[in-house]
Design brief:
With 65 residues, the chain is mainly α. The chain has one domain. It is built from one helix and no strands. The protein is rod-shaped. The N and C termini lie far apart (107 Å).
């Protein structure tokens, strides 16, 4: 393998690596959006659960007899 072939092979590998890194960065961005969406949903569920578990504040019933 000549020096030119080695240089061209290295350039080709660098270009392929850059393409893969770009693709991976796009996938990480998609995952980050999904995690934020899941986090928002979880906060809503926690809020509903907390509101449901709190004891209801009822006014004291006075015996007016």
């Amino acid at each position: 393998m000549s020096l030119t072939d080695k240089v061209l092979d290295a350039l080709r590998n660098a270009i392929l690596l850059e393409t893969r890194v770009t693709s991976l960065a796009d996938h990480v961005g998609d995952l980050a959006r999904e995690v934020r969406d899941i986090d928002r949903r979880l906060v809503r569920l926690e809020t509903f659960a907390e509101l449901d578990l709190k004891p209801a504040r009822r006014p004291a019933i006075e015996d007016k007899r």
